[in-house]
Amino acid sequence: MSRKRFIIKAAVITAVAAAIPFACCEKLTVTYYDIPEPKLTAPVRIAFLSDLHNTRYGAGMNELIDAVDNTSPDAVVFGGDLFDRSWKEKNTQLLIKALVQRYPCYYAVGNHEFYNNEQDIIMRETAALGVKVLSGSYSELETNGGTVRFIGTEKWLGNSTDMSAAVSENAVNILIYHYPEDFPELKGQGFSLILSGHAHGGHWRFPPLINGVYSPGEGLFPKYTSGVYTDGEDRMLVSRGLARTVRDIVIPRIFNRPEIVCITLTPRK
Fold this sequence. Notes:
- The chain is of the alpha/beta class.
- It has a single domain, classed as 4-Layer Sandwich (Purple Acid Phosphatase, chain A, domain 2), CATH 3.60.21.10.
- It contains 5 helices and 14 strands.
- Strands 1-14-2-3-4-5 form a 6-stranded mixed beta sheet, covered by helices on one side.
- It is globular, with a radius of gyration of 20 Å.
């Protein structure tokens, strides 16, 4: 082998080796979004946590709890698949018990809460801790800037995806709904914002070329994986979720760090 060819091969191997830890990094990040909301007179901040799947974030879940605290939210939204398979999962319980003592918390379940048929006990026990569990229902938060109405529904419970009757003209209406692939049938109901997860960011991301290779709801090369999607006056925000490869997802994350989503609703058109 010539010296030049050896140097080229060595450079390529070094570059690939250096890129792997960066591409597969699963360090927690916080993604910030500023969403205009004309119904408010002062900003409202929401921390959105989705698809935890009982993943551990440090002793006592302190890594995740501290990260939420640092966003100084007015409310915390749990977007489904908080549990992986059972109410007995301690990491998720620790997180809920800590955050519900600090902030108003709202929760609509996802498909994983139905594994082992434990959805009823999960919803009942989570509600007993003080979380507002939304199942074809809503709960309102009064803030200095106005009223925010959180609406939650879950198709696996037989709830309708038509929640237009729950929408209030006098409030900011936020739908918590786990499945972003259903965005077309959620549109036109008057929601200010739809919060979804489920797609795990499409697992492998190569932005801006490929924003996800696979999601459980859409299959290969899904449309809705991460960030804000708009269609006319309708807006949906999809979280990449919090599960790490070692916990629930067999497919490793590539260029797809787990995230807390921090939303600031800002009083402007």
